[in-house]
Amino acid sequence: MERWLERFKALADETRLELLAALQGDELSVGELVEVVGGVQSSVSRHLQALGKAGLVVARRQGTATFYRLAAEEPLLTGPFGEELRRLAQRKRMVQRVERVVARRRARNESFFDGAEHWDALRSELFTDAAGYSSLLPLVRPGLVVADVGTGTGGMLPYLAQVASHVVAIDLSANMLQRARAKAAALGLREVSFVQGDLGALPLERGAVDAAFAALVLHHAPRPLAALKEMARIVKPGGVVVVLDLMSHGLDWLREEQADVWLGFGRDEALELASRAGLQELRHRVVSHVNVRDRTGSGSKPLALFVLSGRVGAAIVKE
Question: Is the pTM of this model over 0.85?
Answer without folding.
Answer: no
